[in-house]
């Protein structure tokens, strides 16, 4: 028997957990429609295939994202290794950037089969996968994608070399009043022996008053990790405070001697507490990081926790004209693999946004990765510093942009993923988080934006008008606070880290649109809008009709409101119907929250809107006039704001 070409495994071929519904199974394997019997499995790595059946692994978790390995890794080829009982034909395929399929090679396999595939054709995109046809009853004992060589040294931006690094990681999971989720996350880390074996340390900053330690399962999970587990109780410093604590401890504190950092893990993995993780993603991220040409951040993609066959986020960038985060080019929002597997190339003449999988074969380049799952090399953390003290929002984006400035890129890697609640089920653009969205966007723009500030100001002005027309007065009020705090400069960021949220919540309590009631049924029946059929309120409008309603809505908004509609709403609107062209014609309406658990009563107040608008315009003008000066201030303070010494004072090191 010839010597094996498979040196280090990069990713295991996985099977769904038993009992998963069909749509979730499509993330792992696809069974041919002509199969007379289904394949079966009792664990997550071995598969029994009846004679004559065909299985394709052209799936999200089991195809190999070749273009990413081609772009970022040291490898020139990859090895598919399949260990079988029985006899089966294994066929290897690859895709081009447009999703078209190319046959690579294939052969009958009994026992162990290995196939080495070049990564040369994948400059811009493409996956590699295999299909298997069972000639006899066959069992795949194991299968996976392997590197033909061990990882070599990595080149730093200054040209010096470091590594290669061990396959070891410190995992950090900050938590805030999600004790059940936090315990589940610990259990997920412990459930797979191969994942458990690479974990040096688990760090859990607990910032809430509902503690994981009080939950069933916590003791067993923490005892499993033993002296590898560290919990840190601290005040609510938000996501940035939680993640900064993880980095701070993983690096051993200010002087490097704190016990949680004793293992000196070469990698630090950030994970949210409210996720479900495919544990093999940790191994995959670790291997992608170890085999990278130079140290880089490896990000996991986001699947939709409530629609688990949906890929919610493929990759993100910051738009430099308005400095707003957005999906990277060619990204498709909330892609459903159950309806559109990787093989779905669509139809000739499809529009660019058509629901097919063509663009999923492109390599997507990003500016940063969300901290729901991000692997950060220790050498990067040591060089570029801690997260900014922003509480939540934009801390991950700023860190990714900062890393890029230092020569350390980020890749959001297909097949490395977690499940997380979709953004569409949150009101974070209008609730208390709107303050942090705007304040932190301005802070990061001061640090990163180049060129005129006009695009940022215009987008803020547009958002203000939209919020006022939609009677979202609390949102405008706290966005005005956001501009005030940005204008106050960087010196107070640590001082207000823990106090901003209570202050913002106190402001919101004075506005009816921020007070959530259990149900609209507790209010009188809607009266309707004069001259408008009740069924038309909130309906979809064609572009021409929208223009007409914009004029009518503006005219209505400039008039004095009728206070009787503050007692009896004119409409009960679902979030999808609560749009500017519907709300601009009303003086009072309930709007259901994004999670469907309650409603808010929005009440038009012309004088309040006028006052908020005047303040907003004044502050936006001040931001525009002082932006260059503030850029100097924030950039001068950046090193201190991201230092371990400054964070050590917050953590009482």
Describe this structure in words.
- The strands form 5 sheets. Strands 11, 12, 13, 14, 15, 16, 17, 20, 21 and 22 form a 10-stranded mixed beta sheet that branches. Strands 1, 2, 3, 4, 5, 6, 7 and 8 form an 8-stranded antiparallel beta sheet that branches. A 4-stranded mixed beta sheet has the order 23-26-25-24, with no helix packed on it.
- It contains 17 helices and 26 strands.
- It starts with 7 loop residues before the first strand and ends with a helix.
- A hairpin with a 5-residue loop joins β9 (154-155) and β10.
- It has 3 domains: 8-150, Jelly Rolls, CATH 2.60.120; 162-311 and 366-425, Spore Coat Polysaccharide Biosynthesis Protein SpsA, Chain A (Alpha-Beta Complex); 433-607, no CATH class.
- The chain is α+β, with helices and mostly antiparallel strands and 653 residues long.
- α3 (179-191) crosses α5 (218-225), α10 crosses α16 and α12 runs parallel beside α16.
- It is globular, with a radius of gyration of 27 Å.
């Amino acid at each position: 028997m010839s010597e094996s070409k498979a040196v280090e495994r990069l990713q295991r071929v996985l099977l769904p957990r038993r009992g998963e519904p069909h749509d979730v199974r499509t993330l792992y394997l696809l069974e041919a429609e002509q199969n007379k019997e289904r394949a079966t499995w009792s664990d997550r790595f071995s598969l029994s295939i009846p004679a004559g059946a065909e299985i394709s692994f052209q799936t999200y978790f089991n195809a190999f994202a070749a273009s990413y390995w081609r772009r970022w890794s040291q490898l020139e080829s990859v090895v598919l290794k399949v260990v079988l009982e029985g006899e089966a034909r294994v066929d290897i395929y690859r895709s081009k950037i447009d999703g078209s399929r190319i046959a690579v090679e294939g052969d009958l396999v009994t026992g162990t089969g290995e196939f080495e595939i070049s990564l040369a054709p994948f400059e811009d995109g493409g996956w590699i996968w295999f299909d298997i046809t069972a000639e006899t009853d066959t069992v795949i004992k194991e299968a996976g994608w392997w590197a033909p060589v061990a990882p070599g040294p990595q080149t730093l931006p200054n040209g010096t070399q470091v590594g290669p690094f061990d396959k070891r990681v410190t995992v950090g999971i900050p938590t805030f009043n999600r004790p059940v989720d936090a315990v589940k996350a610990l259990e997920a880390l412990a459930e797979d022996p191969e994942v458990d074996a690479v974990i040096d340390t688990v760090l859990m900053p607990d910032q809430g008053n509902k503690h994981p330690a009080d939950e069933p399962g916590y003791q067993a999970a923490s005892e499993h990790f033993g002296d590898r587990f560290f919990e840190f109780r601290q005040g609510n410093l938000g996501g940035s405070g939680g993640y900064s604590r993880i980095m701070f401890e993983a690096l051993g504190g200010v002087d490097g001697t704190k016990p949680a950092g004793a293992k000196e893990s070469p990698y630090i993995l950030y994970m949210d507490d409210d996720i479900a993780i495919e544990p093999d993603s940790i191994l995959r991220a670790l291997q992608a990081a170890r085999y990278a040409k130079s140290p880089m951040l490896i990000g996991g993609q986001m699947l939709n926790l409530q629609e688990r066959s949906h890929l919610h986020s493929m990759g993100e960038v910051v738009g430099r004209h308005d400095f707003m985060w957005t999906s990277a080019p060619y990204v498709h929002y909330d892609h459903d693999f159950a309806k559109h597997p990787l093989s779905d190339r669509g139809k000739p003449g499809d529009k660019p946004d058509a629901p097919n999988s063509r663009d999923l074969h492109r390599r997507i380049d990003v500016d940063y990765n969300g901290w729901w799952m991000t692997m950060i090399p220790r050498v990067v953390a040591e060089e570029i510093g801690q997260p900014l003290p922003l509480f939540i929002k934009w801390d991950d984006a700023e860190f990714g942009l900062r890393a890029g400035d230092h020569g350390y890129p980020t890749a959001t890697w297909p097949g490395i993923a977690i499940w997380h609640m979709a953004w569409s089920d949150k009101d974070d653009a209008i609730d208390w988080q709107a303050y942090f969205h705007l304040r932190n966007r301005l802070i990061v723009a001061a640090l990163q934006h180049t060129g005129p500030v006009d695009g940022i100001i215009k987008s803020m002005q547009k958002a203000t008008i939209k919020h006022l027309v939609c009677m979202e007065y609390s949102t405008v009020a706290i966005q005005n606070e956001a501009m005030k705090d940005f204008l106050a400069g960087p010196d107070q960021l640590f001082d207000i880290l823990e106090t901003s949220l209570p202050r913002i919540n106190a402001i919101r309590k004075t506005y009816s649109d921020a007070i959530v009631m259990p149900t609209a049924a507790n209010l009188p029946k809607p009266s309707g809008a004069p001259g408008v059929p009740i069924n038309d309120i909130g309906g979809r409008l064609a572009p021409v009709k929208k223009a007409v309603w914009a004029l009518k809505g503006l005219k209505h908004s400039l008039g004095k409101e009728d206070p009787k509609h503050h007692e009896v709403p004119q409409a009960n609107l679902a979030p999808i119907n609560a749009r500017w062209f519907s709300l601009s014609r009303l003086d009072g309406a309930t709007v259901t929250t994004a999670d469907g658990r309650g409603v808010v009563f929005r009440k038009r107040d012309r004088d309040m809107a006028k006052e908020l608008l005047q303040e907003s315009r004044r502050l936006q003008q001040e931001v525009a006039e002082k932006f260059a000066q503030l850029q100097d201030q924030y950039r001068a303070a950046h090193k201190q704001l991201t230092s371990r010494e400054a964070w050590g004072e917050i953590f009482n090191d």
